[in-house]
Structure formats: C-alpha cells, structure tokens
Amino acid sequence: MAPEAPRAQTPLRRLWLFDFDWTVVNENSDTWIHRAAPGGSLPAAVADSYVAPDWIGYMNRVLSYLAEQGISAEDVRKQLEIIPWTPGMRQLLEAIRDRTPVDAGALASAAAAASSTASSAAATPTPAAESDGSAPATTASSSCEGAAQRPQPPPCSPEHWAAPGAGPFGSPCGSAAADGGGGGDDGGGGLALRGSQAAAILSDANSLFIPWILDAAATGGAAVAASDGGPGSGPGNGNGGKGGSMAADPLSGAFLQVITNPAHVHPSSRGIEVTPHHGPGPRSAAPPHACRLCHANLCKRTALRKLLSELQARGLTSPATQLVYVGDGKNDLCPALELRPGDVVMPRVGFALHKLLAARGAAGAAHGAAAAGTAGGGSKAGDDMVYGSVEGATAAGGKRPGREGEEAVRATCVPWSDGHDILAWAAKQDAAAEVEELRDRAAALRV
Ligand SMILES: [Mg+2]
Ligand SMILES: [Zn+2]
User: Fold this and answer.
1) Where are the beta strands (DSSP E) in 253-313?
2) From ligand 2's centre to the CA of 215, what distance in Å?
3) DSSP secondary-structure letter at 218?
4) Alpha-carbon distance 268 to 248, whole Å?
C-alpha cells in the first residue's frame, strides 16, 4: 500500500507513549483477571504454569481455563472494568486528549472505524494483523459488542486546542500527589497542557483488555468509582474522572494507536485468545523481531520505530516533536533507549525501569533512586512474574545493566509516582515554553 501523503498540519509538539499495566492502571491486567475464576482464584496448576519467556502461552492457558469454567469474555471484561487505575492517570490522559489536534483525532477514529469493519463481531476470528501491521486496541474495542456505538468524547475544535489552556497553572509539582490523589480529585487541579499533543500506548497486555479498561467508565462498569483511588482513599478503582459517581469519557479513541498483542474471542469456545504482537502467523500484528533485549512476542522499540515512521509520513510528527515515554517495567527499557536528547523517559518510582535507568546513569534517574531500590521485590514487584527480577537479567537477552559498551540512555529521565506528577511536570514545561514564545514574539515586535 502506498504511504499516505503528508497532511498539511503542524506536527505535534509532544507525543506521549504510555505503557499500560502498572502505568495507566495500578495493576497487571493479565493477572487481575485471575479473580474472575470460580472462587476468585486459579488452581495452582494453572496459576503457576508460567515458563519464561512464554507469557502469551501462559495467558492462553489461563484464558482457556476460564472459558472451560464457563467464564465468558463478558465476565472477564466486567472484572477488568473494576481494575484500579493509577491515581491521576485519567486526568492526564484527558488533558492530553484535549490538546490532540482534530486531524490526529480523525486518525484515531479512522482506525476505530476500520477495525470495527474488520471485526464487526467478537465471534469472528478475523486475522488480527492489520493492513498497516499494527493492531490498534480500538480493533478489539470494536470487536466487543456495542463498542463502536459508544459515545465518543466530543472532538476538540481547532480553536480549542490552539488556544491557551483554560485552567490556571499554579499548583506546585507534586501537590496533587502529596495526598495520595485521594477523594475529591478535581480533574488535575486546574493544570492544563499547551500546544498540540497526542498519545499512543505500547503494551504487553492485549487488544481486548486495554480498550475494555479505557472505556470502562463509559460502559457503566466502573462508573461506581468516585475517588481517585489513592491508598486509603476509599472504595473505587480510581477511574472516576469527574469526581462524584458520574461516568467518565471513553478513552480508547483518544490514542493515535494502541500497540499490543492482538486478542479475539474464539467463535466456538467463546474464550479469549491472545496472539503475540510479533510473530510469523497471520494473526500477529508484525513480523518477528531480532531484538536481544526483549521477549519474542513484543519489542516495544521495534514497534515504536514503526509507529514514528508512520506518524512522520502523515505529517503528525517531525524531528522537533518531543517524545515522552511513561512506563514502569523492564520491557520499557528497550524503547527508552530509542529516545534522543530532548526527549523524556518517565520511569515510575520504585519500579524496575527506574532502577535499570539509574544503573545506566540516565540523567535525572537518581531522583527517587532509593525507592527504586525496592524494584524487583516487595510490593513494587510490577512485572517480575513476566520478566524475572531486575537482578536476574534485564530481559531475555540476559544483559546486565551498567556494563561497559551498553547503549546509553540519551533522554532526560523524570521519575514519577502518579499521574498528577506527570501532569504537573508537563504543565510546568508547557507554561515555560509559552512564556518563552511570548518573549520571542515581543522581542520581534520591538525590532
Ligand atoms: Mg508496565
Ligand atoms: Zn527490544
């Protein structure tokens, strides 16, 4: 297929790249679904059957066990709709969505429309490989009944996204996070982003789970969540975006792409099946990769390169577009190494990525490094079940961090604890950039 002609639009000022598990949500969605099993947990023979690095094989064993027990895909979905979100993440994602140019939004909608056509019924075992090679999660969203008909957030007008942010910038960084993001969240403390921005997801979850979760509050499943889910903040999954018990906007359509492992509902068993993102088969979204750092099913760096070349071909990004990568896990290191000076990698404090970046001497990674020392154990184990401990190896390639000759981290490292931290950081950056622009304009007028 010939590449699309570049669009006559200004490239994004910032492109956000989000991991999903333990980043957007405060859990691992793949293991969260164990709770859907009869009695609330899996038998040990299934739960303990993971043999690294075949996580996809493990997931399919879990999912087929659930199907055999009469747990439908809809039951799994309901379980996912109450997964806790990371405090402040919904506010962050909504703030980015509100700065996403209409043209970019149209791309996301087009992806959703195309995929809903491709898999109009969950029961249809359509090959997940899309013509463009990616497997947008919106595909999966649409493959679940009713998803395509759900109300989407109103598109932002060009006036809206081109205008200065509505809310006053003023809250000091971290103020919202200081209280754990507890109840009464006001949607970001009035922090607003400036300039055109958009987001994509790079996740080792799958193309059904992610949109189910992103759109949960819109379906009513998670609308019960009222608070922002900080520790001790009371009931709720942190997904209530507006304070109170109102349903929040569906968010899957707000992303340019969701790059993950394709999943579908099997027509006869009615169970969910997951396919590796990278693989030789027709259901895989992309061909096998050759990266030694990553598990065979997904190299986020390979996927990121493809995404960036597609976005650049569409005129959505340029070399001046700042990339901000937000993640927590070991498989987020590989894409972080793709970032350049001027880009930003944001590792979650206390999780594996932070420790790996600190070990590589990434600028800024020392902040909160004491907490990062807990990564790989304790309550911040994150994806250790999938990738093993940080101490064991960085990933399947077995390379240890901090060795001579290893690829350096070129991006600035900004650790975060919750979405409020990230939103405050970005709002502060954007406000400073706007002051700079005004100063330049004033100087030009004086000349
Ligand atoms: Mg993660
Ligand atoms: Zn890789």
Assistant:
1) 258-261, 263-265, 272-274
2) 29
3) H
4) 34
Cβ contacts of 10 within 8 Å, gap of 6 or more: 101, 196
Tell me the C-alpha to C-alpha distance, in Å, between residue 27 and each of 205, 296, 328: 11, 23, 11
Separation of CA 335 and ligand 1 centre (Å): 13
Q: How far is the CA of 298 from the centre of ligand 2 (A)?
A: 7
Ligand number, closest to the Cα atom of 380: 1
**Residue 396 pLDDT > 50, yes or no?**
no
User: What's the 135 CA to ligand 1 centre distance in angstroms?
Assistant: 18
- How much of the chain exceeds pLDDT 70, in percent? 64
- The pair of structure tokens assigned to 286 is 């992309």
For ligand 2, the distance from its centroid to the CA atom of residue 392, given in whole angstroms, is 17
Predicted confidence (pLDDT) at residue 387 exceeds the cutoff of 70: yes
**How high does pLDDT run on average in the chain?**
75
pLDDT of the residue at 248: 79
Classify 194 in phi/psi space as left (phi over 0), alpha (psi -120 to 50) or beta. beta
Of the bound ligands, which one is closest to the alpha carbon of residue 326? 1
Ligand located closest to 300 CA:
2
Ligand showing the shortest atom-to-Cα distance for residue 384? 1
Q: How far is the CA of 48 from the centre of ligand 1 (A)?
A: 20
Lowest mean pLDDT among 100-114, 158-172, 288-302, 335-349: 158-172
For the segment 346-371, the average pLDDT, to the nearest whole number, is 84
Each domain of the chain, given as residue ranges in start order, spans 14-145+157-317+416-446
Across 105-119, 175-189, 210-224, least confident range:
175-189
Give the per-residue pLDDT at 152.
34
Question: Of all helices (H) and strands (E), which one includes residue 140?
Answer: helix 137-143
CB of 149 within 8 A of CB of 199? no
| Residue of 252, 97, 253 whose CA lies nearest to 160 | 97
What contacts 275, CB < 8 A, 6 or more positions away?
56, 128, 261, 262, 263, 264, 281, 283, 284
Residue type, 322: Q
pLDDT digits 0-9 by tens, 17-51 = 999 999 999 999 999 999 999 999 999 999 999 99
DSSP state of 286: B
AA letter at 116: S
Could you identify the residue written with the tokens 């100087």? 443
- Ligand closest to Cα of 352 equals 1
Residue 152 alpha carbon to ligand 2 centre in Å? 34
Would you list the DSSP string of 310-373? Answer: HHHHTTS--TTPEEEEEE-SGGGHHHHTT--BTBEEEEBTTSHHHHHHHHTT-TTTTTTHHHHT
